[in-house]
Structure formats: C-alpha cells, structure tokens
C-alpha cells in the first residue's frame, strides 16, 4: 500500500518531512514555497487515491495562485499542529 492510499499516512509522511526541513534550518516561508511547488506537481501528475486527496485537488484546481499558496501553507500548518499534538506540545 502506498502512503497516498491512506490520508493519515500521507499527513504523517508530510509532517515528518516538514520537521526534517525545520531541523535543517529551513524557514517557514521557504517551507511554504516548497509545499506550493509540491502541491502543483501533485495536482498535475498524481491521481488522487482517496476522498481527501480528491477534495484537495478540487480545491487546488479551483484556486488562483494566492489561494493555492494559502492552501499549501495550511497543509504545512496542519501537519505541524498534528505533530505538536502527537508529541504532547
């Protein structure tokens, strides 16, 4: 099973990558820009594997550049917040 098959696994995977980037010294703005680029790639190159990914793709496709950047930023915040909750912060 691919990490794309299960949204929780995808969030955990993304959260781990975000945490690694932060530990390597990447700033939040840079993280959000990378997330925006990855979002564009996923929207164009990867077929959604579950309902959550289909919703994200529909939101991405409906948005303009500013809205897509906001969505990417929210995804980064979502996985950061989930990581803080799971670590008890």
Give the secondary structure arrangement, pairings included:
Layout: H1 7-23, H2 28-45, H3 51-62, H4 65-86
Helix pairs in contact: 1-4, 2-4
Jot down its keywords.
Cytochrome Bc1 Complex, Chain D, domain 2, globular, 89 residues, mainly alpha
> Helical segment tally?
4
Query: Unreliable segments (pLDDT under 50, ≥5 consecutive)?
Result: none
CATH architecture: Orthogonal Bundle
Order of helices and strands: HHHH
Number of strands: 0
| Helix proportion range | over 70%
**SSE-based structural type:** mainly alpha
Form type: globular
CATH-derived topology: Cytochrome Bc1 Complex, Chain D, domain 2
Total domain count: 1
Strand content: under 5%
Average pLDDT figure: 84
User: What is the CA-CA span between the terminal residues?
Assistant: 31 Å
How would you sum up the major sheet?
none
Reading off the top of the CATH hierarchy, the class is best stated as Mainly Alpha
Radius of gyration: 13 Å
Protein name: DUF3243 domain-containing protein
InterPro entries: DUF3243, Uncharacterised_YmfJ, YmfJ/YflH_sf
Pfam families: DUF3243
Notes on the protein architecture:
With 89 residues, the protein is mainly alpha-helical. It has a single domain, classed as Cytochrome Bc1 Complex, Chain D, domain 2 (Orthogonal Bundle). Helices cover 78% and strands 0% of the residues. The chain has helices at 7-23, 28-45, 51-62, 65-86. The longest helix is centred in the C-terminal third of the chain and has 22 residues, at 65-86. The chain is globular. The model has no long low-confidence stretch (mean pLDDT 84).
